[in-house]
Queue: 2 jobs
Job 1
Amino acid sequence: MSPRPPGADLPEHPDRLWNAAEPKSSYDVVIVGGGGHGLATAYYLAKNHGITNVAVLERGWLAGGNMARNTTIIRSNYLWDESAGIYEHALKLWEGLEDELDYPLLFSQRGVLNLAHSLQDVRDSVRRVEANRLNGVDAEWLDPRQVKEVCPIVEISPDVRYPVMGATFQPRAGIAKHDYVAWGFARAAAALGVEFIENCEVTGLRVSDGRVTGVETTRGSIAAGRVALCAAGHTSVVAATAGIDLPLQSHPLQALVSELLEPVHPTVVMSNAVHVYVSQAHKGELVMGAGIDAANSYRQRGAFHIIEQQMAAALELFPIFARAHVLRTWGGVVDVTPDASPIVGLSPVDGLYLNCGWGTGGFKATPGVGWCFAHTVAHDEPHPLAAPFSLDRFVTGALVDEHGAAAVAH
Amino acid sequence: MLLIPCPWCGPREEAEFHYGGQAHVAYPEDPAALSDEEWARYLFFRDNPKGVFAERWSHSAGCRRWFNALRDTATNQIHGVYRVGEPRPVAS
Ligand SMILES: Cc1cc2nc3c(=O)[nH]c(=O)nc-3n(C[C@H](O)[C@H](O)[C@H](O)COP(=O)(O)OP(=O)(O)OC[C@H]3O[C@@H](n4cnc5c(N)ncnc54)[C@H](O)[C@@H]3O)c2cc1C
Ligand SMILES: [Zn+2]
């Protein structure tokens, strides 16, 4: 008897969640970028609006950008009404998303603490709690002892350089598994007829008489009735091919994980003053991040001194982490606006729609922005929750300034 | 981490510097005369190229002087630095 070839006894390949498509010559809607936002937009275009002749063009592989690089914090406790509107809409969708997509997302409402370390922090935080409540967003102000009850490993001694003076707590906030979210949306959208075309970089937008007519790509030209940009950190590059300038700056944002540890951290802790945020993934890694690298860059990596600073901050808040080892660090390219709020809506070119500027905090918005952006594309008119995030707010001055207001990014 | 050649002090670690964004953005000569669109462009719009970018740095933990650099944002390679007031060199 001849020996069996290696691998002959392996089980069958599991069912594919979607099938890679060859580009057709034309689509009703082309979505540029297969991250979370592009996938969610495709899903809701098909599901809510019956628009299924849709292609998602992705220059790499699906969800290989920031969608697979973020630290998965989900919350809706933003200060301003406009932000509360869209982020709370997203959080409500998250609460039903596993059922909606019939897919596990490891969505875990373990709460988010935003620590206050100075009198000004305390005042801003209490104000934000009141604003959140008026907007129907769950929010509590906790004193240091209560903070310790929610998260026993936080150092609340008054003797450290930036003592914890309290925290806001949003119990419904939490984390989810980002790649599952991408797969869930991709599978559900594919089932409704959406096509995914990977390794297909959009190199130019075709515009004639002020109206978009299609895209040039590394896999040929594709005609499109409408084009929806979901290219995150590369939006400026794509928009520039249609002569559109956007108030965006692209920066690396880094994150890191520790080796796998026993469950020690039951919630999510964010601190803007000490500047780190930490949660513990289901698998056991401590997941940490902080701020962007200061200089503009399209490199998906940042400088090590940024990592060093965030580790120092983490140790100040969590002395128990002193012996934990860093397993891996990485970066993504995020598109930052002057007011730290996104741009979602119409563009100066008819049939071309903008969804960008989510910077360091767009993962949490994924279902909400997919919902609102799909509506915007389908109706050629901003969804009411997206309307405040128009491009022309930078001319009218109606900014949604979450920079100072939200206390923390992400 | 970038190794940035300060035009006065020579190559130093990025951690000694403070970033100043796009270079050569002049304050409008007559701000009150600008339209809302022009004011928005001055205030909020900066170039964001994937490629060579003229930008400002301050050697804040060194000589504390501002200067300009030409850096490629796709590779982070610094093509050259020049002092404030000097013309932008042609990128090699
Ligand atoms: C380290 C890090 C931590 C973060 N932490 C959080 C967090 O805790 N909570 C939170 O809410 N947010 C967080 N974010 C932000 C969040 O990841 C982003 O706002 C969000 O992922 C952006 O939407 P997206 O998923 O569609 O982006 P992406 O996944 O980046 O999708 C954009 C896609 O467009 C593709 N693309 C670009 N140009 C082209 C082109 N020319 N042609 C075709 N395709 C193109 C890219 O390859 C990419 O796949 C974090 C980001 C990073 C980098
Ligand atoms: Zn110097």
Job 2
Amino acid sequence: MPDGAQPVLDVRGLKTVFRTRGGDIHAVNTVSFHLRPGELLGVVGESGSGKSVTMMSLLGLLPSPPADVRGGQVWLGGQDILTIGVDALREVRGAKVGFVFQDPMTSLNPVFTIGHQIAEPLIRHMGMTKAQASVRAAELLELVGIPDAKKRLRAYPHQFSGGMRQRVMIAIALSCDPDVLIADEPTTALDVTIQAQIIELIKDLRQKLGMAIIWITHDLGVIAGIADRVMVMYGGQVVEQAPVRELFANPQHPYTRALLKTIPKLGGARAARLQVIEGQPPIIMAEPEACQFRARCVHAHARCEAENPQRRAIDGAAVGQGHDVACHWTAGAGDA
Amino acid sequence: MGNTAHPPPKSLTIRAEAPPRMLTFVIRRLLFAIPTLLLISLVIFLIVDLAPGSPMSQIPLTIPPDVRVKMLDAMGANDPLFVRYFLWLKQFFIIEPAYMIDSWFGTDLAQGAPRILSWKSRSPVFDVIGQRLPQTMTVIGTAYLLAIVIAVPIGVYSAYRQYSWFDQVGTFVALVGYSVPTFFTGLLVIVIFSINLQWFPSVYDTTLDVTDWASFWKQVRQMVMPVAVLALFNAAEISRFTRASMLENLGQDYVRTARAKGMSERVVVLKHVLRNSLIPVVTVIALGIPTIFGGAIITETVFSINGIGAYVIDSIKSSDLPALQTLTFIFAVLIVVFNLIADVLYGILDPRIRYD
Amino acid sequence: MLDARATPTPLVQVRDLKMHFPIYSGIFRRHTGDVKAVDGVSFDIMPGETLGLVGESGCGKSTVGRTLLRLYDPTAGSVTIDGTDIATLSPEALRLKRPTMQMVFQDPQASLNPRMTLAEIIGEPLREHTTGDAATQLERVYELMNAVGLNRRFARRFPHEFSGGQRQRIGIARALALNPKFIVCDEPIAALDVSIQAQVVNLLEDLQDNLGLTYLFISHDLSMVRHIADRVAVMYLGLIVELSPRDALYANPLHPYAKALLSAVPEADPAREATRRRIILKGDVPSPANPPKGCTFCTRCPQVFDRCRTERPALIEAEPGRKVACHLFTTPTAGSTGSVEVTEPNQQGVSK
Ligand SMILES: Nc1ncnc2c1ncn2[C@@H]1O[C@H](COP(=O)(O)OP(=O)(O)OP(=O)(O)O)[C@@H](O)[C@H]1O
Ligand SMILES: Nc1ncnc2c1ncn2[C@@H]1O[C@H](COP(=O)(O)OP(=O)(O)OP(=O)(O)O)[C@@H](O)[C@H]1O
Ligand SMILES: [Mg+2]
Ligand SMILES: [Mg+2]
């Protein structure tokens, strides 16, 4: 991926707040990232860290109320899609950006056939007739590795297994040749052997079709296998961002470091005891003015209490381009 | 709820299509319906028969006792209980349907077998029902259709705009419509619209024949109040149910998928969500049909409509046991039949249902 | 395993355990088939040992766990725990036996009564099975809360006021209340975040060290099982296909399914991931109501041959201490030898 290439997606300073009875929840706070053509950006972070909300905010997919996308810009295809209005946004959804969600069991409409659900965006965005759309739908099913596609078009979702349904979701997301595919934990609900099938499929499709992909997961193993670049989220913020090998070899944020240590390994020496990250993830009820991780951080000091750290580059490149981290503490050589 | 949910077994192959299973299911249900209905019929027969108020009280006291006994014999009221029960069963399930077929196709299946006769009017109960059913059907049928036509869109919109003023007003009206009994609303509208304002007639004219525009207009005017009262009551229930069902489906993941595909809100709500939400609504509507006949008893009395409901009341007043038994049993049959219809509809509308 | 370690008797002995759930269909609801959730498994668990049980969703892991504790009445087979055959015990004898065996569930939220306080939840088994007065019982509740790292100030709170990891601690405290010897942990960490999983696993390990507990640890997280288990049983479609000591299994899985399963687990190491060879299995797990004839894995096995489709392999000792159910390891009527190396060209699927 050439570094200088114009990004297909450029998100700047995104903020999303949920107004709930118990008060505002600042789920996404000044999140910035970009996606280069053909690149696979992995997004990791624990439950509630704002991964899904970030991606759904981009395309206005959150229910409002309670969600309120308060600030930021989302540049896609030369326009800031936060400002173009819902009708124009609908032309973007499904056409320029495809979505795959976590739970394949519930993400398809149970009362319509598979064929119908794949054909819908084709008719809507590509101006196809029903007949053309159903021919294309069969091709798409074939593409995602479902044999005997023509017959399967008439099946209902419940007649498919979880892995097959996720393939159908991928077929829908890719139906209109999007520039960007956002996959929100596409394999979390699946068994490992089925997960392996889906990962292979995505790798394969990426080579064939060349779209850029955002892959959300909380499984660092999955990220290690497929991502070009990784963004780590914590408490609604990006805390670290780096090319994949750099991140795993040289993690900077105490959260990333702890996370990498806390998961047991499949090979190599077996730790006698697992490292733990003490405490609980935060619920952010106000605009952050201190580091969100400080309560669980082994390196926390006075400044972490007083000031929310900004992302800073650690390898000379601009923030977002190379390796950057949002932390007041600097990892020295040999730090644990 | 239990501790762990068990995922259904996954299979690679497409499961067998629904129809054969559906057929087995229907047959199974019909087979079950037979003992159920027999039991219900026995209970109905016994309760009605053992209830106080014998037909003798209807015979004038001036008639001498021996004649009285003869009269009772002729009515069959003195036969042993089970003899009368089986005779009645035979009449209900074999003879009466035979007469019905005869009258439709001009055949002679019944061959003059004795029919279920009303003790009061001495005419066949089914004939009376046949005369009165159209009155009931026009009023109740119109009211129920009207209720569905108004309630479903209201339910859909209330759910889509949850907590909007429309939804709040809808909730309030539905609450009132559902909790105030029809005899009260009925009397209220009679007092207001026909006694005070004199817009509509207060007595329903059953003998009216619709032959021209004038009589049609008259028919419409006399139907307005009973239909409105019944429709309000049913619409309240159906709209609430539609709303709840829509709300449940609006939160489902597939709705998000439809939006992420770039579908317009109209398609998302009126196609994806509505199609799913209507599955339970349709079955509730089907289940509600027999119960509205029960509700008709009150409405028909309030508005003096000479329909089935009024017939029930008449038979109770005059201790007309055969009529009462027949009418009650018809209600029971309706309930069993519409339960089955509701289940079958569910299976047709929801591709996930597998009857096994 | 009749080597030097043979002296202690197993705490749990399972022999040919079957759990079939009947399927009724047709007009007269005749018994037309069975979901063979568990179709004949045998294994031992030594005192103080942790046996890991892994496999894909629906392969019968939870059913094994539940049948072991007689939460289901087994269709066939025996389960001997601490010298008593659980499978045939009368209800009253079973009730007396309950304290020695407990279960920790996957979903901490669903397994706790939302209307009971923490003290009531943990104290419930005490009220049911012991005779002490309220004060002694409360003392024991505090002791248990202490053991699982819950502050005793929380005793009056309700489950919804706790995080997932804390709720799982409550579940563990409840399981510990009656000093059990044997605990079935059914995916105790599956619902928890990565950063919380380690807390719970460490707790389970500490408790095992301090109290000498024996675990059946059910999980689909193979890395975590490697961390916690001493031996591991790999299940596929109601059967154990491989039962090996941990290190041997992870270094060199014998059964083709175990190989595929292990190779499918992604590792948090980009360099290794780039070079790793992955076995991509084709298709899905068949339905347990209608398992394939012969070896249950034959429909997806990369090394399948004729015999696999007709004859079901028994679980036999392939190497000292390692048991495998696969014709590649049975007597050499098959054309293949015991040593097999799976190479990429054999694989179907989309891998390039
Ligand atoms: N509809 C909503 N109303 C209120 N708060 C919400 C809503 N949706 C999400 N949130 C909050 O936003 C925060 C971020 O949630 P998000 O779904 O993005 O997490 P995530 O990183 O995707 O986690 P997971 O791994 O569990 O999917 C959470 O604290 C959550 O409670
Ligand atoms: N009570 C039951 N009645 C009928 N079938 C059942 C029952 N419990 C489990 N099954 C079936 O038995 C099989 C094994 O289920 P089980 O819950 O043991 O799987 P598992 O390995 O624990 O899966 P998971 O990883 O999803 O928890 C499944 O096909 C399941 O549908
Ligand atoms: Mg999410
Ligand atoms: Mg389970």
